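so my prof wants the structure for this chain in the tokens format not the other one, which i didnt know existed until like an hour ago. anyway here's the sequence
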Amino acid sequence: MSCKAKYGVLLDAIANEADAIAMSYFRGGAMGAERKRDGTVVTQADKRIEQMAIAKVEASGLPIDVVGEETSAEPPKGPATNGRARMIIDPIDGTEEFTRGIPTFGTLIGIEEDAEIVAGMVSAPALEKGARWWAYRGEGAWRRAQRLHVSQVRSLSESMIFTTGTGPSKDAQARERMRRLADAARNSRSMGGFWQHMLVAEGAIECAVDWISKPWDLSPLGIIVEEAGGKSTTADGERTIYKGRFVSTNGVLHDTVLNFLR
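here's what i got, hopefully its the right format
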């Protein structure tokens, strides 16, 4: 059975309801926003979406565990070791933007089997109606009915790069490496979050760098970029979602980009 046949109905159902829940709060009142212990914000929409996803997984009868940002005590440090499939979900990636009325937020869902992400979906209902990207291992990456392909730009000096900040770590070396990478490109922007990786998959830009991220921020991103012909690794070149410092490129420029970041 293909990954899409196995998980597609479930992921579509979760994303559809997540869109409805998120948009019922977006640019409205009564979000119930509060700060968590790590300083990030959570809203009633985050909690409702994650609870809904857990309920749909249970109702599906599929043997899948769920790891979510709002219900897990801490981020997983590596792939599951119990032999079961695992759904990793960020109910609203970009909650800060969500609470400020900025449309660059989305629900991120990845399914992991045997230490490999085999299905991924990103749904961003405020960007435009039906803004959704997905991929199933070996079956291509898609947005709506359009199959995605990364760009074929072969020179860093002709590329567009999106980056995020280095966080509160005061990592001067990291900031300098990111600055040098941005300076080497034709154009650079500071974006962060899921959308920049989706732009790599679409061929709109050549590189996206997220310096501070957790597994639920990343779970569907790499498979979508890879199935579009690109490459996603850590800044050290490891193909994993568990070590942060996540880099997506069109593949052609990947080694060049990593040389700036190492």
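also thought this was worth mentioning. Helices lie at 3-25, 44-60, 95-99, 172-184, 194-202, 215-218, 221-227, 254-261.
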